[in-house]
Amino acid sequence: QLQLVESGGGLVQPGGSLRLSCAASGFTLDYYAIGWFRQAPGKEREAVSCINSSGGSTVYEDSVKGRFTISRDNAKNTAYLQMNSLKPEDTAVYYCAADTLTVQAMCINQGAAYEYSYWGQGTQVTVSS
Fold this sequence. Notes:
This protein is mainly beta and 129 residues long. 6% of the residues lie in helices and 46% in strands.
């Protein structure tokens, strides 16, 4: 079964940290860019961060720059989103997606509404005291 599976979400206090994982099964991520997207209640899904297949190019949404770090380990077929200094407004369901588009195309041009090749099922992140 070809799929992406997110994990690592949970409840954290403001200022805390979480690391999300996006693991691929049934296919290799080596040739795919990875995007992290999020959807808060009552809001549209938005792009958070994207990374190209080699890990050498990344894009971040302005509100997470300096706080979130996207990375990948192709040997483990997994991508990550390290989230530090979390704020209540970061509360959302976080999804990962994989596609052969460029990171600019994923995170800027196409955004969260595009039908990427693979989508995960999402993991809930709640930032609250």
